[in-house]
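Kindly inspect this today.
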Amino acid sequence: MIIEQGRFMRKLIVGLVLILFLPEFVIPQELDATVTVNVEQLESASRDRLSSFKGQVESYLNNTKFAGSAWDGPKIKCSFNIFFLTTIDETNFTAQLVINSQRNLYKAQRSSLMMNILDNSWQFSYQKNQGMVFKQVDFDPLLSFLDYYAYIIIGFDMDSYYALGGSDYFQKALDITSKGGNSSANKGWQYESTNFNRRALLDNLFSANYQQFRQDFFNYHYNGLDIYNSPEKQTAISNMIKLITDLEAKKDQINSRSVLLKVFFDAKAGEIVDYLKGAADKSVFVSLKSIDPSHSSKYDEGLK
């Protein structure tokens, strides 16, 4: 395993500065979130009741300290695109969310897409200008939903810098799914056989069958993408390909409809082709078509 000392020391020094010099041990927030809201399907009265919703959600995501400990890296850029679907009554709504997050790459101009998830099962209550206060004890269909995705975003980011580094955040997200599944507003929080399910994603992340994948996920980013534009480019390519060959080796042990792998490949299929299409051995794209047939057309580009 390659440990690039410059990157490690930079994160360590930043962490020490936060602890030693910031007043009252300030813990910076983790997210740099952009929120968009689409209310076109709602009647005008409902739209008015939601006029403050975007600003409140964006403020909540950007001003909450989800980690509860010193955050020693840049804020994670992410987008929450909320599409309101129906109005149940004056204060209850259904909506769907498209969420994505980005990771900075070491000494590179481009970033890496970490997730691009469509969650179409969100029902919650909201009153205009209601207070939004971070609570880790009580389940709330609105705020706990936002908390869940904040922890998923942070967890994937941490997994890409440290092997299994996101586990504490994924556990917090799992705790939310347990509370949500036992609540009266349990739709979307219990396990369902759908293209995407919040509980199934956490079940995959903690399953023994996917721990090697999470190790490879770290190497793909930290010892792959982060050193791709360096003299260690071939090592980077090898580490990126290892994730694919390890998945192929465990293909019979992994659910072909894995939510975790869907989330990964929905975000990474195009990126993998961009970085590996110049590799001498094109068989990696044949393997990808077998592992992830839903993006076969992209992998065909890599085979050309």
In short: Residues 1-6, 8-26 have pLDDT under 50 and may be disordered. Residues 60 and 133 are 8 Å apart (CA to CA). DSSP finds eleven helices and four strands in the chain. The beta strands are 31-38, 76-87, 92-104, 111-125.
